[in-house]
């Protein structure tokens, strides 16, 4: 899909991957709708895009709230490209996580992507065009200890992506899943303790930047790629997990977090 002249909606767009993806789509000639909770940070990103000569609009919304998702869909008509990027959650053992925090982890990223995509899917199918990008985490591919709630929501997002890919086949609406390795964004600052829980073996995977993630997202749309895991070391771990699940699981447990 050519993104020039298209309308793109990016969630979690106030910083990190979402902000860089919005900027890159705008640089490719798209009008970008940026969605996040922080109006102040959104305005800074819109200003940055406009200073570059791009076109963008900010929409403040808490995507953990189904009512605000519905209001957003009423405010912004179905885009040509929907990027489900918003995600929150600490890495904790299940019994160390409060029920309220588990609900929040499920609400974003999984329920936010599920409900927002549902709002736009009918219009996309009716016109016979559109693209959906779900930005996922490496924990959706490599089970690790001490991350039960967050990891479950990421596996649910993976399941949503696979289901949509089958349901939308032949409709003109495409689906991509972009899965970067560890990203040098604000995530680990916003979720203290998570970085220390990365299994030692997984630290062999190089860290990528939000700019590299943004390129992967735009490329996935333009090249109509179903799935993109990167860097290659993450892909290698994912393949080893399919070929040697017992060994891979043991190594992530052995080098990971224990009680």
Please give the structural blueprint.
Elements: E1 7-11, H1 16-27, E2 31-36, H2 39-51, E3 55-60, H3 66-75, E4 81-84, H4 99-127, E5 130-135, H5 148-167, E6 173-180, H6 187-190, H7 210-222, E7 227-230, H8 232-243, H9 245-254
Parallel strand pairs: 1-2, 1-4, 2-3, 4-5, 5-6, 6-7
How would you describe this protein?
The protein has 259 residues and is α/β, with parallel strands linked by helices. The chain has one domain (7-254): Rossmann fold, CATH 3.40.50.720. It contains nine helices and seven strands. It has a seven-stranded parallel beta sheet with strand order 3-2-1-4-5-6-7, with helices on both faces. Strand 1 (7-11), helix 1 and strand 2 form a beta-alpha-beta unit. The longest helix has 29 residues, at 99-127. The protein is globular and about 50 Å long. It starts with 6 loop residues before the first strand and ends in a 5-residue tail after the last helix. 43% of the residues are buried. Keywords: Oxidoreductase. Belongs to the short-chain dehydrogenases/reductases (SDR) family.
Provide a brief overview of the structure.
This protein has 259 residues and is of the alpha/beta class. Helices cover 47% and strands 15% of the residues. A seven-stranded parallel β-sheet has the order 3-2-1-4-5-6-7, sandwiched between helices.
